[in-house]
Specification:
With 114 residues, the protein is mostly helical. Helix content is 62%, strand content 0%.
Length: 114
């Protein structure tokens, strides 16, 4: 399950990049919290409930910004998260290039295996 949450992290990071590419601002401390969740995933020392809760919080916080950009952005996020959680999201589905200036490490999180 951790790997699916790693892919959910990727989906949210990708959507954050799209927000920045559109010239919009992310919610306060969004990048910091995205980095914290990545650390939680990679450490393996957090419960699935904690990781799921933190990812859901990020999803809720970015939702209004995406809605302001357009309903298509919300739909894109929901599709990516759905793919992440059912194990079908792959690297070619996302491009984290838009986040490179804001996030030092945009690689897919190296998480514990299920």
């Amino acid at each position: 399950m951790y790997s699916r949450f790693g892919w959910k992290w990727v989906a949210l990071a990708y959507m954050a990049g799209r927000v920045l590419v559109c010239g919009r601002q992310l919610p306060k401390d969004f990048i910091r919290d995205l980095q914290l969740v990545r650390s939680e995933l990679e450490s393996g020392g957090y419960s699935l409930c904690d990781v799921a809760s933190h990812l859901r919080d990020l999803e809720i916080r970015i939702f209004p910004v995406l809605l302001d950009i357009g309903e298509g952005e919300v739909q894109a996020m929901l599709e990516l998260i759905g793919k992440a959680m059912n194990g079908t999201l792959v690297e070619k589905d996302v491009d984290l290039e838009g986040l490179k200036l804001a996030l030092a490490d945009t690689s897919i999180p190296d998480v514990c295996h299920d």
